[in-house]
Amino acid sequence: MIIRINRMQMPVFHSSAGEAALLDTEAATSRTERRDQQVARILDAAKTCFVRSGFQGASMQQICSEVGMSPGALYRYFPSKEAIIEAITEADRRRDAEIFSVLTLGGDVVDGFVAAAMAHIRYMHESGNAPLFAEIRAESMRNDAIDFACKMSMKDVDDSFRSFLRGAVDRGEIDPCADLDTILPVMVAFGEGLAINDLPAQGVDFERLEVVIRAIATAVLRPTGRSTAS
């Protein structure tokens, strides 16, 4: 027996509205992922150029060559070197917020401070970002746009650090050697110095470095021996 199938009667399947929406979402996600990948490639290339030639010496053309991208394509993502630095510092802000979240993990104020400091030192050492950080900070002293980007990058960390110490003072857990408006910028400058110098890369042992940082934190913050539980 021969069965003849009329092609005109073959069922036709149509995508539902839900399936179409799913395809649109997947396409949008794919575009976002590709954009994020391109941005990451540009930032990595820019970091290499800034460390190699300095912010002033590195040109957008050099960054294009490093990343393998035409100037027109690059400018669709970043219109200037300042915009690239802003993106780098914004990424640093998010990462620093994660690093300094360890401040409140321990019950002891000094322990929290030391844990955050050591986490930051380890990150700077392992990432190899000390030369880039030094270049950005140097440029911030002569470029108002970069200075603003750096200050905005540090704002969340400064606010969380201030809140952390203010709470400890209010609870009577520490009796700092000076007011917080003096201590905070000193501590930030101290931390920046440690980050730029990358002491572990110079052979300073992490454990011995932690001992020194703990001694400094104890001398400055002067814990009273009281705790929330007492």
TrEMBL record:
PROSITE patterns cross-referenced by the UniProt entry: HTH_TETR_2
Location of the DNA-binding region in this protein: 59-78
One Pfam family here: TetR_N
Signal peptide positions on this chain: none
Entry keyword GTP-binding: no
Keyword DNA-binding: yes
Residues covered by the HTH tetR-type domain: 36-96
Keywords: DNA-binding
GO molecular function terms attached to this record: DNA-binding transcription factor activity; transcription cis-regulatory region binding
Protein name: TetR/AcrR family transcriptional regulator
Record organism: Aquibium carbonis
Lineage: Bacteria, Pseudomonadati, Pseudomonadota, Alphaproteobacteria, Hyphomicrobiales
